Amino acid sequence: MINRMNMIRTTLYSRNTTSTIHTALQSFQKHSIASKPNTINHQRKPTVQTIAPLPDNIDDSIQPELPGTHCWKCHHYEPPSLVDNSQQLQIPSRLFCKNTQCAVLQPLQRPPPNHFALLMPEKYSQLNDELLHNAFQVDLADLKRRYRGLQQMLHPDNFTTKSNQERLLSEEQSTLVNKAYQTLRDPLTRAQYMLDMYGVGISESTSINEPQFLAQIMDIQESIESAENDVQVINQIKSDNQVEIQKAEKSIAACFRQSDLDGAKQATIKMQYLRTIDTLINEKQ
């Protein structure tokens, strides 16, 4: 009798368990079907990449994809934006978190963007022919306006009451913006920087294979030394030298437009010599 009761209990338990499992499976299937559209519509966040670094050389025609960003504080995601009518990615305006309840200063990517991408992102966000051909010719008034606008937002004085992280970011970015501006405002340092970007560096020992030009430089140096305190002679030499500097600048721009990096290098070296003459003249005045 006891064994029979145990068998009945076992049978009832098995039936109840089977019924419970069956009910659970039906519930799970209904839940899976109901939630399936949400699973399909879920979008994965893109992998963060760097854009327009300052490489040692450029030998790859593939342009880097611009990254989206996540706020370091609230983790708000800001995707890359698109340039109107061109469907080309550009750097999003992301100095500050777009979450209005957060709005903290954001770090720059690593490595930092090149100077052109930092100050003129809508024009030169990538290392491509557009940058190579046109970036050397800079509107100095526009460059100064952009620089001042960024410094007004990033200056450390604006972050004295903020967190330590924001103060550090402010100092770092303000310094980088200042360095970019100082480099791009001067045609000589701008040319040197562009050549470095495309792997054509100029060292202190780099010379120029134009004997006639070098002889002309030596003659000018001698004229400056012999002029002593003759203001009229010094002013004339300075005026003539400025004309030559302007010619060198135009030559650099033309070479970059034609993708002639070697020609741009030679014209930049000429400008270096002419700038040395300018320094000697200023010491005399």
TrEMBL record:
Signal peptide: none annotated. InterPro entries: DnaJ_domain, HscB, HscB_C_sf, HscB_oligo_C, J_dom_sf. Residues 122-199 form the J domain. The keyword Transmembrane does not apply. The keyword DNA-binding does not apply. Transmembrane segments: none annotated. SUPFAM superfamilies: Chaperone J-domain, HSC20 (HSCB), C-terminal oligomerisation domain. GO terms for biological process: [2Fe-2S] cluster assembly; protein complex oligomerization. GO terms for molecular function: ATPase activator activity; protein-folding chaperone binding. One of its GO terms (cellular component) is mitochondrion. Keywords: Chaperone. It holds the Pfam family DnaJ. Belongs to the HscB family. This is J domain-containing protein.
